[in-house]
Amino acid sequence: MDEVEVVVAHSERATLRVGDVFLKVDGDQARIHTEVEAMDLAPVPTPKVLWRKPPVLAIAAVPGTALGRLGEPSTASPAAWAAAGAAVRALHDAPLPPWPGGSGRSLDDLAADLDRECAWLLTNGVLPADLVTRNRRIAEAALRPWTPVFAHGDLQITHVFVDGDEVTGIIDWSEAGQGDALFDLAILTLGHEERLGEVLDGYGTDVDRDVIRAWWSLRSLLVIRWLSEHGFDPTAPGCEVDVLRSRMCGRAGP
Question: Could you tell me which residue ranges the Aminoglycoside phosphotransferase domain spans (predicted)?
C-alpha cells in the first residue's frame, strides 16, 4: 500500500499525496471551484482532475520534477526556464477568465495591505527599519495600473514541472484569475533572480524589470507574517527575508 505523504498542511488547507494521487482538502469551496475551472481553461499542461467530493479534490500527479525550490539552487537548464517563460506567455495571451484573481486586487487594497504589514514588521521588531523602508519604497513601483491577463496567481517554481527542457505541468491554480502579468513572472523568479533573463527569453516580449523587482519586495513584505503564523520560515536561506536583503545592496539586479 502507498504511504500517505503530507505535502503541505496549515489552518486553511492541506494537500496529501497517496501514490500518484494528490488529495487537496480545503474548507473554502470557492478556491476549489476556481482551481478546477482554471485548469479547464488554461492553455498549458495541468493536472487531471480525478474526482471532486467537497471538501476534497483529487488530482493526478503530473510527470517530471519541479523547476526548483525557494532557498535552493535550481538544477533545471536555461532552456527549461525559458520553456516556463513561454508557458506563462501562452497563459497570459489566453482569454480572460470570468472572475477576478488574487493578484487582481485593487491598488487601494494592495496599498492598504502594504501599510498594514510594514507597520506590523516594524512594531514587532521583526525586521530592521532600514530593510523595511527601502523595500517598501521599491515595492511602490508595483502599485500602478496594469492590463489584466489570465494569471496563475501563485506561480512558485515548485508549481511548475519540467521533464528535460519541456514543461509537463503547472499545478495549484486556486489563486488564478484576472491579474498582473508581471506578478506571475515575479513569483516564478522570486529568490532565483539570476534566472529572470532566461524566463524572459521564453516569454518573448519586453517587460519592465523594475516592476518585477518591485513585486519581489512587495510580495515578500506581504507574506512574512502569514508564513510565520502558518509554520513556514521566511528567514531560511534564500527565502523571503533574503530576497528583501538583496535589495539593500543597491545593484540593479538581473
Answer: 23-206
Domains of the chain: 63-249 (3.90.1200.10)
pLDDT of residue 105: 72
What is the C-alpha to C-alpha distance for residues 172 and 46, in angstroms, rounded to an integer? 9
Q: What angle do CA 208, 209, 215 make, to 5 degrees?
A: 100
List pLDDT tens digits, range 232-249. 999 999 999 999 999 887
Q: Which residues of the chain have pLDDT under 70?
A: 1, 102-104, 250-254
pTM over 0.90? The answer is yes
